[in-house]
Specification:
Structural class: alpha/beta
Strand content: 5-15%
Number of strands: 6
Shape: globular
Distance between the termini: 67 Å
Number of helices: 8
Largest sheet: 4 strands, parallel
Helix content: 40-55%
Strand order of the largest sheet: 4-3-5-6
């Protein structure tokens, strides 16, 4: 049996979301069908608002309602440090910690030759432009500990160090509560490399 066109279109729309297969999309579509109309309208409006009201900060590349974003506007933050991350979700995670008080720069991805992503596809040019400001003393590279994240970190390090700016990398290593015997070689290497004095 074929679904009526409106349900079929909704299912198709849900399958475009990452991690949503046809069964989950069907489940979601039928859930929407059971929702009251005002909740569906609010949900649809929230989707429209995200696309209409949000933009990328012209300074750091973070998602924002105003340009520049509130972090870039905050004069209480340490302007001598820029923490470079892969995407805006990383900023949200780091901000929840409430320990880092510097500025950010969002790359919007990582180098990935397999996927055809090169330096020109990332938000690197605006980072170089920001570094012309003499107040910036350190760039902290906080890309993920994947092959692509490591390649991006190395690329940025080679690109930025000749400018005389200190380039550091977040320490990676063993998670609290994990066993050494189950850790992979890269995790163990990073744990030893990022060791500190007790």
């Amino acid at each position: 049996m074929q679904y009526p066109a409106p349900i079929a279109k909704l299912i198709n729309s849900f399958t475009k979301l990452p991690g949503i297969g046809s069964k989950t999309a069907s489940r979601l579509a039928f859930y929407v069908l059971e929702m009251n109309e005002s909740d569906v309208t609010q949900f649809a409006q929230a989707l429209i608002n995200v696309k209409r009201d949000l933009k990328y900060c012209s300074v750091c590349g973070n998602i924002t309602e105003s340009d520049p974003c509130i972090i870039c506007q905050d004069e209480q933050r340490d302007a001598s440090q820029i923490l470079v991350v892969e995407d805006a979700r990383d900023v949200m995670s780091l901000e929840r910690m409430q320990e880092y008080r510097g500025k950010y720069h969002i790359l919007h991805g990582v180098l990935s030759p397999m996927e055809g992503t090169g330096p020109e596809d990332l938000n690197i040019a605006s980072l170089i432009k920001r570094l012309q400001d003499d107040t910036i003393k350190e760039v902290i590279v906080a890309t993920n500990a994947t092959a692509e994240g490591e390649a991006t970190a190395m690329y940025l390090s080679r690109l930025l160090k000749p400018a005389g700016i200190k380039v550091t990398r977040l320490a990676h290593g063993l998670a609290v509560g994990s066993d050494i015997e189950y850790a992979d070689e890269m995790t163990l290497y990073r744990a030893i490399e990022g060791r500190r004095e007790l």
